Amino acid sequence: KLIEYMNTENEIGTLIQNKGIAEVLVVITDTSVNVSVKKQDLSQADIAKIMDITMRETGRKAEEIVIQSKF
């Protein structure tokens, strides 16, 4: 399960980077997904893209996903 989480974390990170956000850290646990991005001003469009990618790749609900800016 840990290896599966690690692979999914890497894939989500790559997909988000492809959307123009250079530095991303994704951590998946049994109960949540945390996405930290190094971008000062996250727009609603950025958040929507990150949420869409994360939900699609993990199958998790929005309330299980935390997106934070670490600038």
Overview of the structural elements:
The protein contains two helices and three strands. It is globular. The chain has helices spanning about 1-20, 45-60, and strands at about 25-30, 35, 65-70. Strands 1-2-3 form a three-stranded mixed beta sheet. It is of the alpha+beta class and about 70 residues long. Helix 1 (about 1-20) runs antiparallel to helix 2. The mean pLDDT is about 95.
Largest sheet: 3 strands, mixed
- Name the overall outline: globular
Q: Point out poorly predicted stretches.
A: none
| Spatial separation of the terminal alpha carbons | 31 Å
Number of helices: 2
- The computed structural class is alpha+beta
Count the beta strands. Answer: 3
Which characteristics define this entry?
71 residues; three-stranded mixed sheet; single chain; alpha+beta
What is the structure about, briefly put?
The chain has 71 residues and is of the alpha+beta class.
Task: Write the SSE topology.
Blueprint: H1 2-18, E1 24-28, E2 33-37, H2 44-58, E3 65-69
Parallel strand pairs: 2-3
Antiparallel strand pairs: 1-2
